[in-house]
Amino acid sequence: MIGLVAHQARFDLLSFVRNRQARFFTLVLPILFLVIFVSVFGNDRIGPQHVKASTYYVPGLAALGVIAGSFVNLVISITAQREAGILKRRRSTPVPAWVLIAGRALVAIVVALAVMTVLLLIGRFAYGVRLPAETLPGVVLTAIVGAVTFCCLGYALSTAIRSADAAQPMVQAIMLPLYFISGVFIPNVSLPHWLQDVAKVFPVQHLAGGLRHAFDPATHGVGIVWSDLGVLGLWAAVGLVIALTRFVWTPVAATG
Fold first, then answer.
1. Is the confidence at residue 23, as pLDDT, over 60?
2. Nearest partner of 26 among 79, 66, 83, judged by Cα
3. Best CA proximity match to 251, nearest among 108, 104, 91
């Protein structure tokens, strides 16, 4: 079974690598944001922790990279494959359904971790952003839990999208406001308190906050924020329940 999952993951990874649009939005866009933000707004100290702007941006955009790899790209690709009949043909093969899902989820996690690693390296060597060695386990664990969470949410959201053309606009309409109110792009301490409370309900802030905690020079220990992981775990459970009860392999546009 492990060999089947690895084989399926390899196939899905090759499909991702050959997709120019997916590569750009998943790999290149977070890097462009980092360069633009530091170039436009400078590298002065910002946020409640008064860290360098690059130290604030890198973990926030790393969270964006994790979400892009494990949620945005996943929703768009599986919706397009479902409506094109690809998922239906895959489901008719002798390969168990859970292998197909596990392979696609594994690719999403690998891509998310790869994007985050690239951002960390650029931040380290281009802007002097330092990640304490003792908090590295916190970064890795938070990224993996976040990727798993958004994979579950990606499968769940795909059940509400009726056509491939609607996938990308719907994903962006959901995620862009959450990025802004969750402190991914800019500190959200200046937002109204009610809007900050809204952001705390959703998983984006907890993923970005968990990663940013590990980058904070004042952090001691392994850099794990268990409350953030707990919220991410709750959202993963919700997404998994919805996906298990509503996910379909056949096109729905013709019957919707």
1. yes
2. 66
3. 91
Q: What is the rounded (10 degree) CA torsion for 251, 204, 66, 29? A: 90
217 versus 160: the higher-pLDDT residue is 160
24, amino acid identity: F
Instruction: Please tell me the distance from the alpha carbon of residue 120 to that of residue 126, in angstroms, as a whole number.
Output: 10
- What pLDDT is attached to residue 255? 54
CA dist 152 and 161 (Å) reads 15
- How far is the C-alpha of 184 from the C-alpha of 178, rounded, in Å? 8
pLDDT in tens, 107-154: 888 887 888 888 888 888 888 887 777 888 888 899 999 999 999 999
Biggest distance spanned by C-alpha atoms of the chain = 57
241 residue type, one letter: V
* Strand partners for 45: 52
* CA–CA dist 142, 205 (Å, integer): 12
Token digits for 102? 């596990």
Length, in residues, of the chain: 256
Residue 121 in tokens = 């390296």
**DSSP sequence for 61-114:** HHHHHHHIIIIIHHHHHHHHHHHTTHHHHHHTSSS-HHHHHHHHHHHHHHHHHH
Query: How many percent of the chain have pLDDT more than 70?
Result: 97
